[in-house]
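Fig. S4 source data, part A: sequence.
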Amino acid sequence: MKHLIVAMLGVVVMQTALAHGHAGPIDDSMPDAQRIRFCERVRDHALQAFYNRDKGRPMKLFDEDGSDGARITNHIIRRIYAEPQISSPKKAEVFGRGTCNEMMGTKLPAD
């Protein structure tokens, strides 16, 4: 079941990435390549959370298994639902990317 959810999320992320025309591929030799890729995915989840909130859909969080990925993504999704000043897709993207970059490497509770 978990693999199915991950596969579905991968499809959604790929569709979102192709639709928005991101910068070129990130070279693995870059020092922060993994963080950059992760924060791009988190940015896409932030954008989807904004659209879900805008359409009145319930919040969809990831199962927290102790990983930073689920913790950071859930924190961002909760904040997007809680803060009306995140009022456009661009603001959601900027918030998602910025918050991800700030939280990467921290082990403190997000909330």
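Fig. S4 source data, part B ends here. Helices lie at 2-20, 33-54, 68-82, 89-103.
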